[in-house]
Amino acid sequence: MRLTQLLGLIGAAVIALSGPSCATSPTTSKTPAEKADALLSGVIKANEPGVAVLVAQDGKILFEKAYGLADLEHQVPDTPQTTFRIASITKQFTAAAILKLQEEGKLSVEDKLSKYLPDFPRGNEVTLRQLLNHTSGIHDYSPAPDQLSEVAKPTTTVAEIELIKQQQPLYDFEPGTQWKYDNSGYELLGYIVEMVSGQSYGDFLRENFFEPLGMNDTGVYRLNLGLPHEALGYILGKSGFEPPFYIDPSWTGGEGALYSTVEDLYRWNEGIFNGRVLDATSLHAAFTPVATNASQLNSGNGYGFGWSVGHYRGLRDIHHSGERPGFTSMVVRLPDEKFTVVVLANSDGIPNASANQLAYQLVDIFMADKLAPPDVANASGSPKPATP
Asked: What are the strands of the beta sheet with 51-57, ordered from one edge?
């Protein structure tokens, strides 16, 4: 891993069109909720780190439950109200903030990076659009081996941007010519949100998104917040579950800083897809996958602005995952079905229990009558979901 890969600072998995395999739903239960409960109860042990899940359609919650423990030492259970660090799901909030500022006439996604960071090398060749869709070519920041201890110490966004600028090479490819998942770009975008709005990143999101949507359990994660229902993250080591390598939360910005709950992320999805957050033009831009070659242009699959766009077993699929040491997360939206799945987990080492895998198993269960058979979907050119 780089900083996200070596240390999981942001924890974004690389997009790949070979997404999770289609799972076989339990056959002994009668209702989708019973099948979901049987699946999750079979994967998550009561004395291990767990998950919170929510499934909804047409604005109605169909299934909501939590399994396992939020805190192993104190035997605190996960609940639907437990807060988890959501890692790279943060990116869709950063992208929405940029689009909101564009709607207000305060910036344009066609602006050059140099407009906001005049001394950024080759910043006049990079646009905000390219930062949003991961085509800027800027290298995803990773510390040198002798710098790894630095991530355990507090930092600032300005200091982290200085480290990004010092990378050699700074660019992996010519801006706009290729696609490569890049947390550095979203760190820069979070900084631009602050510059243009005159507010902190967290304050801007709270005033424009969280408060209007009633997302009272979402915010920028920092130490000693005193969250009443906080999940602690765990990794599976040789002797069992243990806390991950410590990374000071100040190292995460517009690429992965947020914590949330399944209920708040459901509120977010309902707000986004019902036009209560951004206008139709902004949403169209956010959900249009970037194409750097003809095959991508024709497939309709790829990365937009903070969302991955594709198809799952014949249905349109818009989603994003997150991963950092001790946490995995996934939010899936099938827009034509008005269907949402949210899975938040406070471990990243339980076999068959990643948030990404569980989310699509729940899609299989609740959308069974809508999904094309796996072989038919693949034969018809509908790939499995791309997963950032």
From this structure: 60-67, 51-57, 339-345, 327-334, 315-324, 308-312, 302-303
